[in-house]
Write a structure and sequence with these properties.
The complex is a heterodimer of chains A (381) and B (669). Chain A has 381 residues and is mostly helical. Chain A has helices at residues 9-38, 43-64, 73-93, 110-128, 136-154, 158-174, 179-199, 202-211, 216-221, 225-235, 244-256, 281-314, 318-342, 360-379; strands at residues 101-103, 106-108. A two-stranded antiparallel ribbon of chain A has the order 1-2. Chain B is α+β, with helices and mostly antiparallel strands and 669 residues long. In chain B, strands 2, 3, 4, 5, 10, 20 and 21 form a seven-stranded mixed beta sheet that branches. The chains are: A mainly alpha (381), B alpha+beta (669). At the A-B interface, helix 6, helix 11, helix 12 and helix 13 of A face helix 1 and helix 2 of B.
Chain lengths: 381, 669
């Protein structure tokens, strides 16, 4: 009979508060679009609450499951295998975006589910091969798994792929990967990025638009290239102005001031800021709750970082350590990336803010990860 | 794990944590920069895109009659606008909107396509009805926009339309008081700031400067009297087969115009669509001068009383009906008159008598007095496009001009000028300024003070002589007031048109009632009557009598003569044929040809633009290649038949081209 463990209340309360604050923000941010497009202002928030119930259940179940039960080849391989199959399936099912598997009322994004699957798999694999991390018998299979998964994810969702690769890189780095392998991996990522850009050229225009908005540098390189770029942008299905979203998000955040305009008072959500309840919800937080609200959310992720790092250091076994580190890195990197995109510090990338953005799959995978982290943190004492 | 590796792991972990921490701090720094340091900039940017400035329409001032009955008022209405480029399915939108707004769906669809081509939004329908508004609002169409406008309505339709005028789109005054007082009536639009969403739909708004409503205007027009005047005038013009007519009733002391009627009139609610309807917008009484004829003799005699020793009893030689002037012979019908008193010259309207009297005045004196009476100058009534009439300068007067002017020729005057001159006789010698506006926004309008032009004694004599016209002269039996005495003068002037005098008359009667202390003065002119029954007395006299009776009754003017029950028998023979000057000989240029600017211009009347659609081009005589090129350039489809040169086509050139219609062109060698 295992002793009764003390719940990590810091982490637990932070998670619950952020999830429900997220639901509130989703209602505030989506009510206009929802009533306009879906006929009811509650359309999105009702769906989110459904997913909160499901995801909280999953989180509580994982919190009560000893994390070492996950340290089993069946769990690691079956998890990543299912996700990979779903990713292959989604490529053919959703012919347009390659993102969604829809089953009646619910839709699932396999790329989101890839996050916990990859973390569990890598933690298992690295813990297994911890003593021989730099052996090619470790590296090739791990690299193959990561690359395969990333390749499948990148087709639809570059943002998530970046997060996955960053997480994997972090785990191997901490596990003692030699720098030369790391450099090789970096080169590989670069090549992969080139392929990613080549497959969907709008990504390039986004990057160029971010780095060189007025095509000043582009014009120096090639006098006519910017015309082609502009033409391409016009034809592309994405938004006309590559900086439009980011500019609108900055206006939202900036006009919030210190205390914000107040709940439901956002004006940018009246159609100015696209997707205010998903990838750009942080902008609405900034607009409605000002610096205090935006900083509070940042601190919330800071708490997750603190508790995750603490568990990583204190947990006695390798599997737990890599689990905690992988989850922490995954969530914090994703959150910081989202915030940086919203604040215009990074080129626009479709990536949700964990716990706050609307989206069932994202919430499910995030809370599943956090359930595991809570359990690890409990065992860390 | 060996200690070295563990140390390395911890070190790498620390670096990692530190990197994430730095990233977090960078985000915090950016938040501070955006939300605290540059907060103001972003608020400004947000305002710029989120707020729109909207004009708040200021209601146009109401126009009332003298008893505060509304003659013109504005009510808010909505117009429907849309941007066709934002409509997913134009065909469906047209089919949906068409029936709702009682528009033709196909036409609406065409207009949408045109607007799409031209990259502009379009007005679907202006001033929709409350029913249409309700059903449209209920439909929750996201791609239409409503714009509040104000619509001018004239509840009495034709009544006083020439005085009130009308507005054209955007409520700009087009004619009448609406035009001359446009600035006062219009008001100042207010401004509001509106929070708009990205589609520029308003969410909420707050007023910055409230609109200042236009000032209301109270006219001197009496709506009841105006209605009667218009009715009687129109009936008589039609009955006497005349063309046009005008009638004015005025207070002789103040110059307030109580009724100002013209025939034909118009409904200011409906904009004119063709030239005929536009012509009906002329305020004939103020804008169209004419040769007044015999009514002008009043002025000849009044001037004679002032400047010569002639008295009403002075005998005037009327030369038995024939007077030889240099290059011109004046005849009077029925042998004319011999030596008759001056009063009878007026009563029987002897042209030769008037010429003799005029000769005694002399041209300089006569010109001076006519100028004093206001001829050749605008009256200052405030009605737009008022004509000054024509009084030739003395140096333009020819040898017979004095004679002509004495009997009302070679001079052109408007009804308004004539009624003002008549008012001088009625009010004891003062020249008043006719006007139609009593007060603006509750403040009385100042009118120039009356100016003395005749001695009171003169006007007493004139009134007596003008009573003679009614009692025993050309106005006998036609001027019938029920209990009031009256004085006046008939006039029958041949109309000069297209370079020569026609056999059509300008029949008029001007006069006042009651005789001593006249309360009202009025003039009636009917243009285009013919023959003996088209003379001033018998045509204008009955209208004058009816409207004067009604006016005197409405204003409770005390009766001053016993009410006679005049038998409604056939009118006795009226001896007025003498008053028509038989015009012979070359008179030189007619006075109406002097200055075309005294006549109103049709271009001043705004017209509703009749939509000119594409028309079928003329392909005839062209080669097949030329036809094909032209058709292609205009986007027309052509069905060629035969070969060679185009000989015939269907539909014919110049007919409206219906969209999608193909033109059959027959080519032959």
């Amino acid at each position: 009979m295992a002793q009764r463990l003390k719940t990590d209340w810091y982490l637990f309360i932070t998670i619950v508060v952020m999830v429900f604050f997220g639901a509130l923000m989703i209602f505030s941010a989506s009510s206009v679009t929802a009533s306009f497009k879906m006929g009811s202002s509650y359309y999105f928030v009702i769906r989110q609450i459904f997913w909160i119930v499901v995801a909280m259940g999953v989180m509580m179940a994982l919190k009560r499951t000893h994390y070492r039960k996950l340290q089993h080849p069946a769990v690691a391989f079956v998890g990543i295998g299912i996700v990979m199959m779903m990713l292959i399936a989604v490529f053919f099912v959703d012919t347009h975006q390659h993102r969604w598997i829809r089953m009646g009322f619910v839709g699932v994004q396999p790329s989101e589910l890839a996050k916990p699957a990859l973390v569990v798999f890598l933690a298992f694999f690295i813990a297994l091969r911890a003593r021989a991390i730099n052996s090619r018998h470790t590296l090739f299979p791990a690299a193959a798994a990561v690359l395969a998964l990333t390749f499948l994810v990148v087709v639809a969702d570059l943002g998530t792929a970046v997060v996955l690769v960053a997480t994997a890189a972090t785990l191997f780095l901490v596990a003692g990967l030699e720098w030369r392998f790391f450099m090789v991996a970096l080169l590989g990522i670069l090549v992969a990025c080139l392929f990613a850009v080549a497959s969907k050229p709008y990504r390039l225009t986004r990057i160029i638009g971010y780095v060189d908005h007025d095509y000043a540098i582009v014009q120096k390189v090639d006098a006519t290239l910017h015309i082609h770029l502009a033409e391409y942008l016009k034809k592309s299905l994405t938004t006309k102005d590559t900086r439009y979203q980011s500019d609108q998000a900055r206006i939202a955040v900036g006009s919030g001031g210190v205390t914000g305009l107040g709940l439901m008072q956002s004006k940018q959500k009246e159609g100015y800021l696209p997707e205010p309840h998903t990838d750009f919800i942080y902008a609405i937080v900034g607009e409605e709750f000002g610096f205090l609200g935006a900083a509070a959310v940042l601190i919330g992720f800071g708490i997750i970082l603190w508790r995750g790092m603490r568990a990583t250091v204190l947990i006695p076994d390798d599997f737990g350590r890599y689990l905690a580190l992988g989850i922490t890195t995954l969530l914090v990197v994703q959150a910081f990336m989202n915030m940086s995109v919203v604040l215009g510090m990074m080129p626009t990338k479709g990536i949700p803010l964990p716990m706050l953005s609307f989206g069932g799959s994202s919430l499910l995978s995030t809370l599943a990860c956090l359930g595991i982290l809570l359990n690890v943190s409990e065992h860390a004492g | 794990m060996n200690p070295g590796a563990r140390l390395e792991a911890i070190r790498r972990l620390t670096w990692l944590g530190a990197a994430l921490l730095v990233w977090g701090v960078a985000i915090l720094g950016e938040l501070i920069s955006l939300q605290i340091l540059h907060h103001g900039d972003y608020v400004r940017q947000a305002r710029k895109q989120q707020e729109a400035s909207v004009d708040l329409i200021a209601p146009r001032g109401t126009i009332f009659d003298r008893d505060n009955r509304p003659l013109a008022m504005s009510e808010p209405v909505e117009s429907v606008l849309l941007n066709p480029r934002k409509i997913p399915d134009k065909r469906m939108a047209a089919d949906l909107l068409g029936p709702m707004l009682s528009l033709d769906a196909d036409q609406l669809y065409q207009r949408m396509l045109e607007a799409t081509e031209a990259h502009r939004g379009m007005v679907v329908k202006r001033a929709i009805s409350p029913d249409e508004s309700q059903s449209l609002h209920g439909a929750h169409l996201t791609w239409i926009r409503f714009e509040e406008e104000s619509k001018r309505t004239y509840p009495n339709e034709n009544v006083a339309s020439h005085v009130i005028g009308s507005v054209y789109k955007g409520e700009h005054g087009a004619e009448g008081i609406e035009k001359s007082n446009d600035e006062l009536l219009r008001g100042v639009p207010g401004k509001a700031n509106e929070l708009v969403d990205v589609q520029r739909h308003g969410i909420e708004s707050w007023v910055q400067t409230p609109p200042v409503p236009g000032k209301s205007i109270r006219l001197s027009i009496d709506q009841r009297l105006q209605f009667i005047t218009e009715r009687e005038l129109a009936a008589q013009v039609v009955a006497k087969h005349g063309r046009t007519g005008s009638a004015i009733i005025m207070n002789p002391y103040t110059g307030e115009i109580l009724a100002f009627a013209n025939y034909p009139s118009f409904d200011p609610n409906k904009p004119p669509t063709n030239d005929l309807e536009r012509r009906a917008h002329f305020n004939l009484g103020a804008q169209v001068p004419f040769e007044p004829g015999s009514v002008f003799k009043v002025l000849t005699l009044a001037t004679a009383l002032e400047t010569t020793t002639l008295r009403p009893t002075s005998l005037i030689n009327c030369h038995n009906g024939i007077l030889q002037l240099p290059g011109r012979v004046i005849h009077e019908a029925h042998g004319g008159f011999g030596m008759i008193p001056m009063a009878d010259v007026l009563a029987h309207s002897s042209n030769i008598g008037a010429i003799e009297i005029g000769a005694q005045i002399g041209r300089e004196k006569f010109y001076e007095y006519l100028s004093n009476f206001g001829f050749g100058q605008r009256t200052g009534s405030g009605l737009p496009a008022e004509s000054p009439g024509i009084l030739r300068k003395l140096d333009k007067w020819r040898t017979t001009s004095l004679a002509s002017v004495s009997m009302g020729q070679e001079v052109a005057a408007t009804s308004l000028q004539l009624v003002r001159a008549c008012a001088v006789m009625a009010n004891g010698g003062m020249l008043v300024t006719p006007h139609v506006i009593l007060d603006v926004g509750g403040q009385p309008v100042s009118v120039p003070a009356p100016r003395r032009v005749l001695r009171p004694e003169t006007t007493v004599l004139m009134r007596q002589m003008m009573e003679g016209v009614v009692l025993r002269g050309t106005g006998k039996n036609v001027i019938k007031l029920h209990g009031w005495s009256a004085g006046g003068k008939t006039g029958t002037a041949q109309i000069f048109e297209h370079g020569h005098y026609t056999h059509l008359y300008n029949a008029s009667f001007m006069g006042f009632a009651p005789l001593n202390n006249p309360a009202l003065v009025a003039i009636v002119t009917i243009n285009g009557t013919e023959g003996n029954l088209g003379m001033g007395g018998s045509v204008a006299g009955p209208v004058w009598s009816t409207i004067m009776n009604e006016a005197l009754r409405l204003y409770d003017v005390p009766k001053d003569v016993p009410e006679k029950d005049v038998p409604q028998a056939a009118p006795a023979k009226v001896d007025e044929s003498v008053e028509v000057a038989d015009i012979e000989g070359d008179l030189g240029q007619n006075v109406l040809e002097d200055d075309p600017s005294v006549m109103p211009k049709l271009e001043d009347i705004p017209q509703v633009a009749t939509t000119v659609g594409p028309v079928v081009p003329d392909f005839r005589g062209k080669s097949m290649r030329a036809v094909a090129t032209e058709a292609y350039s205009q986007g027309i489809s052509v069905t060629p038949q035969g070969s060679g040169v185009a000989r015939n086509q269907s539909p014919a050139p110049g007919t409206p081209l219906h969209p999608g219609e193909a033109i059959r062109v027959l080519f032959t060698q």
